[in-house]
Amino acid sequence: MNFARILRHLLTGQLTQRRTFPAVSLAVIEQAIVQSEMTHGGEICFAVETALNTLPLLKNQSARERAIEVFSQMRVWDTEHNNGVLIYLLLADRTVEIIADRGIHAKVPDQEWQDICRMMESSFRQRQFEAGVIAGIHAVGMQLQKYFPFDPEKDTNELPNRPAVL
């Protein structure tokens, strides 16, 4: 059992989340998603979770495992071309996970997604949270542009652009 992690999660509350991502930052992130989706046919969702609940924390649930749950709960997989991408941030761990649906995952190597996550985490270590998320959205958007170019006659907004605060 990782007591330092448990303590970090117990001490990271909603106040930390609101300071890290105030309403203005969430609106800027939402606009970044909107702008990105005007350049490709994919769907990007961003979710920030302050900390894990007690039971998952005691079971040592990883950020990756939680991101997969959130991907399912948010129905990011529910797009016509299976090209939804979730950018998930577990704030207490300052860990980013990207979960891509099978349509885009088959085209982009895992290492590319990991590189985007590490780039975002680097920004977070410098307390550049909004900038890190926007850079991640841009990088994910670039991958989606390669494989799912924007078609104004076919592309519709299939998933919410508003960041999810869990």
UniProtKB/TrEMBL annotation:
Please report the stretch or stretches of sequence annotated as the TPM domain.
26-141
- InterPro entries for the chain: TPM_dom (IPR007621)
Which domain of life does this protein belong to?
A: Bacteria
* Any Pfam family the entry gives: TPM_phosphatase
Record's protein name: TLP18.3, Psb32 and MOLO-1 founding protein of phosphatase
Please name the source species.
Answer: Nitrosomonas oligotropha
